[in-house]
Specification:
- The protein is α/β, with parallel strands linked by helices and 435 residues long.
- The protein has a domain of 205 residues: Enolpyruvate transferase domain (UDP-n-acetylglucosamine1-carboxyvinyl-transferase, Chain), CATH 3.65.10.
- Helix content is 29%, strand content 25%.
- Strands 22-23-1-24 form a four-stranded mixed β-sheet. Strands 2-15-17-16 form a four-stranded mixed β-sheet. The chain has a four-stranded mixed β-sheet with strand order 4-5-3-14, with helices on one face.
- Helix 7 packs parallel to helix 11.
- It is globular.
- The N and C termini lie close together (9 Å).
Length: 435
């Protein structure tokens, strides 16, 4: 899909889509719990659909309802070596792969796991080695499909905190299947920590106990210990609700920061107490000089005097694209640090963010672990390659509001990965999508 956008100011209000991060975790817990669970989830996406498809391949039932999904759990007969090999297609969803790989191993289910796009090249170490050390048998990394046999044993799993929080989440989600308490030791600093908090919150909603403490890693370095236990397995609470997605809402809030001089842009359906780390977007936008408005069920943003700052995004790396859009038109230079892991996303996001800003007439360059963006008063417009990365496409659309000429986004359809209705909502706020 090619999107051609004519510059226009955005204003008004839009409802946040359902959180992809919460949906993955709640759907998996529901599929592993006793009893049927209604998961209230107002929207879906390619990544959520990939997790649903994989859970169905494992034997769970997932039926669409008016409010979301009704999930019946994986039957006991679908676990263990006697069950037929399951074929899981993770699409391009890193969360689906990294969460369900430990789950499949803990079920003791033979499986072949397929991935597409850039996902097969994205790393699985050191999760891969920890799974093998605890009884899983895996085909070589990078091989597609990845074949899984054996059964994961409980015990202590050790992971570095600077690689991927998804590894920690995957082991915690698998823990209730192993019959005994499971400890995951993560060396500090623990980057993207809020994503672990989302996992812990989901598990607790299904009756698991997760205790956290400070410990020493085997090499003596400081670490965090997460001990998960669910002696009787996970128990359905009956109904769970997926909250609004702060990660995608951040693009509308950024739009308000760069073009909302009067009414601004507001997003409803957001919980200010959510464990989602990307709610930090409000503090980051305020730091950049935007006027942030909070309400009982959401937030809004209005532009004022934007100025560059230094922002550590180690806890919320997905905020770099929307915040970089604001930095591109702020006075001075904005430095993003703690973002090295963005090189391993759907694209090398440090390079693709900076390339998109330059393509539209801005000034940006990637560093080893971050990004430098020098603001300009107005962008020219131009052609942006979305690089099959949903967040690059959304960033380019937001930047069109401060361009003198049209913006063409090649491959704009990749927004379906997390936000299929993005361009419809863009138009509802006054955006002009010509094609």
């Amino acid at each position: 899909m090619r999107a051609v956008i004519e510059p226009a100011r955005l204003s008004g209000s839009v409802e946040a889509p359902s959180s992809k991060s919460e949906a993955h975790r709640l759907l998996i817990c529901a599929a592993l719990a006793s009893g049927t669970t209604d998961v209230d989830c107002t929207t879906t996406s390619d990544d959520i659909d990939a997790t649903i498809s994989c859970l169905e391949a494992l034997g769970a039932g997932v039926a669409r309802t008016r409010r979301g999904f009704r999930v019946t759990p994986v039957p006991a007969a679908a676990a263990g070596p006697g069950a037929c090999e399951a074929e899981l297609d993770c699409g391009e969803s890193g969360s689906t792969l990294r969460f369900l790989l430990p789950v499949v191993a803990a079920l003791g289910r033979d499986a072949s796991i397929t991935a597409h796009g850039r996902l097969p090249q994205r790393p699985l170490s050191p999760l891969y080695e920890e799974l093998v050390a605890h009884g899983a048998e895996l085909s070589p990394q990078g091989e597609v499909p990845l074949r899984v046999t054996g059964r994961l044993r409980p015990g202590r799993f050790s992971l570095p905190g600077n690689v991927s929080s998804q590894y920690v989440s995957g082991l915690l989600l698998a823990a209730p299947l192993m019959g005994e308490p499971v400890e995951v030791v993560v060396t500090e600093p623990v980057e993207s920590r809020p994503y672990i908090d989302i996992t812990v919150a989901a598990l607790r909603r299904f009756g698991a106990e997760v205790d956290e403490s400070r410990v020493q890693a085997p090499d003596g370095s400081p670490a965090r210990s997460f001990v998960c236990s669910a002696p009787g397995g996970l128990v359905s609470p009956g109904t769970v609700r997926v909250g609004g997605d702060w990660s995608n809402a951040a693009f509308w809030l950024a739009a308000g920061a760069i073009c909302g001089r009067e009414q601004g842009v507001a997003v409803t359906g957001l919980d200010a107490r959510s464990p989602q780390g990307d709610r930090q977007v409000l503090a980051a936008l305020a730091l950049l000089g935007a006027r942030v408005l909070r309400s009982a069920d959401g937030a809004g943003c209005v532009t004022e005097c934007l100025a560059g700052r230094t922002i550590d995004v180690s806890a919320c790396p997905d905020l770099v694209p929307p915040l970089a859009a604001v930095a591109a038109v702020a006075e001075g230079t904005t430095t993003f640090t703690g973002a090295a892991r963005l090189r391993l996303k759907e694209s090398d996001r440090l390079e693709t963010v900076s390339a998109a800003i330059r393509a539209l007439g801005g000034r940006a360059r990637a560093t080893n672990d971050g990004l430098l963006v020098e603001g300009v008063n107005e962008l020219a417009g131009g052609v942006v390659d979305a690089a099959n990365d949903h967040r690059i496409a959304m960033m380019a659309a937001v930047l069109s509001t401060r361009c003198a000429g049209t913006v063409t986004i090649e491959g704009a359809g990749c927004v379906s990965k997390s936000y299929p209705a993005f361009f419809e909502d863009f138009a509802s706020l006054g955006g002009h999508v010509l094609a």
